[in-house]
Amino acid sequence: MSEKIDPALPKVELHLHFEGAAPPAFIRGLAKEKNLDISKIFTEDGGYAYRDFWHFLEVYEAATSTLQTPEDFHRLCLAVLEDRARDGVVYAETFLSPDFCGGGDVSAWREYLHAIEEAAAIGQRDFGITLKGIVTAIRHFGPEKSRPAAICAVETKGDFLTGFGIAGDEKMHHPKDFTWAFDCAREAGLRLTAHAGEWGGAKSVRDALDYLKPERIGHGVQAIDDLALVDRLAEDRVVLEVCPGSNVFLGVYPSFPAHPVDKLREREVIVTLSTDDPPFFRTTLVQEYEALAKAFSWTEADFRAINADAARAAFCDAATKDRILQIIEGRA
Ligand code: ADE
Ligand code: ZN
């Protein structure tokens, strides 16, 4: 029997796509308001409908087409934080794409960001959740689009916007095509993370580390196929943002017990736990913890330790980190 994990256990979630966290009912509501017919992206039971990862990316973008104004993103932020509160999340970081918020134009992006930041302040007041933003270039939109995305990030770096990263189809382009954007963000003092090793194998993780030099890797789980790389991750203290339910739902691994997260931990890689795009993968962070406790006999102490690592790896200031660590360690 696995230990019952208290759903209210305070949690840190570092890997959450903002549009990917949109409840389907929220997106359906926006589509109705704007007279957009996106009915084909929903199943009969009201969830998101797609066949595989690549179709998922298309459906994601169709859902995102309903988000057209800063006010829409403000409302989305409140909905996303309400869901995080239900999961016991006390600190979250979310991926935001200037491509979806003003098309890479800095002044338009500022307005979207302002609306999201205002909602984040409400979330802090009403739910006690601290939210930070990570600007994310979309790999399959191409290297050219990553440059304005990086410039948007640099121009709006601050208390809320603290990081830069890349997501999207890992099989498109090569990390070296994105060095300009990552160098630009690094020089401005932004913290860096890159999706790799979700679909592209261990080599994709190596290339991301070599060319983009991020301190965290989104997913990174396929590193398990190259134990020298696993040792490098552990030695260099590169943090993995692991999203087991996403990997299982999309078929990267057939089940939770077959997922490499436990092996990675055993080899002393720093792992953190997130949901990625929870309504798309029909998951919540509470469900992830339950499935992991069952698959690997992880206890509440394991989850507390993982959350403390996540707080230490957070892209935030030292005072925020200390405050979150106190909550996680039961000192606040
Ligand atoms: N964008 C949204 N979810 C993603 C994922 N799981 N991998 C890559 N890009 C994404
Ligand atoms: Zn992701």
Outline: globular
Low-confidence stretches: none
* Global structural class: alpha/beta
CATH topology: TIM Barrel
Would you count the extended β strands for me? Answer: 8
The CATH first-level class comes to Alpha Beta
Order of helices and strands: EHHHEHEHEHEHEHEHHEHHH
The Cα radius of gyration reads 18 Å
Oligomer: single chain
Strand content: 5-15%
Order of strands, main sheet, comes to: 1-2-3-4-5-6-7-8
What is the mean predicted local confidence, pLDDT?
A: 97
Task: Describe the structure in your own words.
- The chain has 332 residues and is α/β, with parallel strands linked by helices.
- It has a single domain (15-23, 77-328), classed as TIM Barrel.
- It is built from 13 helices and 8 strands.
- It has helices spanning 24-33, 53-64, 70-86, 106-127, 143-155, 179-187, 201-212, 227-235, 244-250, 261-266, 285-296, 300-312, 318-328; strands at 11-13, 89-96, 130-138, 161-167, 191-196, 216-219, 239-242, 270-273.
- It has an 8-stranded parallel beta sheet with strand order 1-2-3-4-5-6-7-8, sandwiched between helices.
- Strand 2, helix 4 and strand 3 (130-138) form a beta-alpha-beta unit.
- Helix 3 (70-86) runs parallel beside helix 4 (106-127), helix 5 (143-155) packs parallel to helix 6 (179-187) and helix 12 (300-312) packs antiparallel against helix 13.
- The longest helix has 22 residues, at 106-127.
- It is globular and about 50 Å long.
- It binds adenine and zinc ion (ZN).
